[in-house]
Amino acid sequence: MTTNACIELKDLQLQTQIGTYGPGAIIPKQHLLDLTLWIDSKLVFISEDVMENVFDYDPLVIEIDRLAGDGHYETQERLITRIVHACAQYPEIESLQINLRKAPVHAGSGSLGVRLSVNKTTLDDLR
């Protein structure tokens, strides 16, 4: 049997400051993170209901929150890069997809985001 497993974090609102805006510019009110972590299916398809058998994502979410509030960022890309490095610290994560978007971007509506997919080879190189 072939199985795949992932953990999906959706619409995590980050308390962060990204970008520099001049007078009259639309300043985003929110920055939302989506993160999909591909992990070994043995960490999801479990025989006993105990935490030791699953991937504990709470420390990673705490670290992402810390990174988001760690100061001013000029770009979404830099924060994404730092989050990927944080994910690389967990050998359970085999690959990932990350999307960070801000809203609004024009006339009080719309969102603009940056998405990155990172494979196992790249994560291993970061480790």
Query: For the CA atoms, what is the radius of gyration?
Result: 16 Å
The total of beta strands comes to 6
How much helix is in the residues? 10-25%
What's the arrangement of strands in the largest beta sheet?
1-3-5-6
Distance between the ends: 30 Å
The pLDDT mean sits at: 94
Tell me the series of helices and strands, N- to C-terminal.
Answer: EEEHEHEEH
Number of domains: 1
What's the CATH topology label? GTP Cyclohydrolase I, domain 2
Major pleated sheet: 4 strands, antiparallel
Structural class: alpha+beta
The residue ranges in which pLDDT falls below 50 over 5 or more consecutive positions are none
Strand content: 25-35%
Based on the coordinates given, report the CATH architecture. 2-Layer Sandwich
Going by CATH, what is the homologous superfamily? GTP cyclohydrolase I, C-terminal domain/NADPH-dependent 7-cyano-7-deazaguanine reductase, N-terminal domain
**Helix count?**
3
What is the CATH top level name? Alpha Beta
| Cα shape | elongated
